[in-house]
Amino acid sequence: MTRSEDRSELVKTSETSVDVAPASSLLRDIEILVIxxxxxxxxxxxxxxxxxxxxxxxxxxxxxxxxxxxxAHQRWSKLGPETHRRLQAEWVRKNDQKEN
Length: 100
What we know:
mainly alpha, two-stranded antiparallel sheet, single chain, 2 strands
């Protein structure tokens, strides 16, 4: 059963159909989504770091993100060198696992 199928159960009445999901199922989906968002944020930071290390300007990074160069710089330049190294290593490790 897929996650979307697991999320809710369609209950049919004589006049209408109502999508009803148990609260526990919805809460579990929220928890899963929070984890996925956190991973996506880490992946995004790693990609920004890699782009910058490969010579991309903040203007180019901002354009790719749909934000200004200043907004990109403010968000990602504050990450220290150790964080950048960790993010890059994590991204490389994750993509190596995908290839194998």
